[in-house]
Amino acid sequence: MGDNFDMTMDEFLPLRDVVFNTLRKAILTGELKPGERLMEIHLANRLGVSRTPIREAIRKLELEGLVIMIPRRGAEVAQITEKSLKDVLEVRRALDALCVELACDRINSDEEEMLKEACDEFERATETKDATIIAKADVAFHDIIVQATGNQRLIQLINNLSEQMYRYRFEYIKDENRHDSLIDEHRIIYESIVKRDKKKAAQTARLHIDNQEKSIIRQIRLEQEQTANKKK
User: Fold this and answer.
1) How many CB atoms lie under 10 A from the CB of residue 76?
2) Staple 26 to which of 32, 36, 109, 213, CB 3.0 to 4.6 Å?
3) Residue/partner pairs of 154-161 with CB below 8 Å, 24 or more apart
4) Cross-strand partners of 69
5) d(Cα 85, Cα 147) in Å, to the nearest integer?
6) CA–CA distance, 186 with 189 (Å, rounded to integer)
7) With bands split at pLDDT 50, 70 and 90, how would you rate the model's confidence at 3?
8) pLDDT per residue over 174-196, tens digit each?
9) 38 with 69: CB under 8 angstroms?
10) 37: helix, coil or strand?
């Protein structure tokens, strides 16, 4: 188990929620890796809490599909599978295309300026080579487009899906060979929205997701090969 994550206390949240949020973030960012066992005693000692909030957090993480229970082994971080990836991205592809089309109709001048700045900020973020910073900048870019739709139900759906997307996005962001393409795709999406070119915007939004899927599947298969080779 890595030593990269720490618990940040929040006076407004019950301890069990703080523990849940901490473990959840560690899984989503890859600090707790797929297949890693979640030992209650170890986590309790690490976070300085009793085993009860750890147990409650693990149960909630299991309901979210981020943790699986293995007979005679206990809790493990769920693997990133091609099926789970495709299920999430299939929905996200359709919603992202809808978002950019609605943004073409509804975005205001302030949001256009924010989107331009988010493009620039993402490009600067890639220069840091820090996956956490890059992922945050990527989320910020897409969030502006989502908010520009003005559709509260759509915003809610995207927010729920974003939590699951983060895990895959992080895997994608780690592939530095894709950074230039990501920058270009963001620019084209921004320019298409400003020009009110719905067709181009939706087409690029779908391509953006398709490229993510291909890249992450390559990484999943590579990791599976490496794991299989280690067992030989």
Assistant:
1) 16
2) 32
3) 154/95, 154/98, 154/99, 154/102, 157/95, 158/95, 158/99, 161/88, 161/91, 161/92, 161/95
4) 75
5) 25
6) 5
7) low
8) 888 899 999 999 999 999 999 99
9) no
10) strand
